[in-house]
């Protein structure tokens, strides 16, 4: 069987094929651009995810390192730490002097002297000592006992206050349930003086 191909048929067929190829090339080019755009978006999302993860790691482990370590100490401690303000007779005298109220100053001074607070030794013996732990130069704390039965507590020492405060067994809030509490009934040296106490609890990540 003989096959004869005419010249114009061949050219016509070639032209059809060429047009088809051009169409395919255009479609392939569009598909490639779509794929490239998809990969570019994927790269951007991946880069943002990596940078966010890196920033979070640095933020948690470098910038907040002190806060995290301090919070861990407070969380695992058996002792309650809380901000407080105590208004005693001596504080009232100083406040009276500042406001220049002579009548109140004399009254408070007499009450203070009659209370016997100036004759009582509250600091213990000269042999008592507390070994302080320096936490990154921002907090100093140490262990000490309160009462004649030596109830142990861990104190955060603050030079901004000369008052000593410990939580009582009468405290029923959630913060006291897991802490070591002071039981005044077990200490023979405990004396109730009726001092007014005002406590303000503040939690913050800023130091």
TrEMBL record:
PANTHER family with a match to the protein in the record: BETA-SITE APP-CLEAVING ENZYME, ISOFORM A-RELATED
Name used for this protein in its record: Plasmepsin 2
SS bond list: 171-176
Record's keyword annotation contains Ribosomal protein: no
GO molecular function, one term: aspartic-type endopeptidase activity
Domain Peptidase A1 intervals: 140-207
Entry annotated with the keyword Cell cycle: no
Any one Gene Ontology BP term: proteolysis
Membership in a protein family: Belongs to the peptidase A1 family.
Transmembrane parts of this sequence: 41-59
UniProtKB keywords: Aspartyl protease, Disulfide bond, Hydrolase, Membrane, Protease, Transmembrane, Transmembrane helix
Top-level taxonomic group: Eukaryota
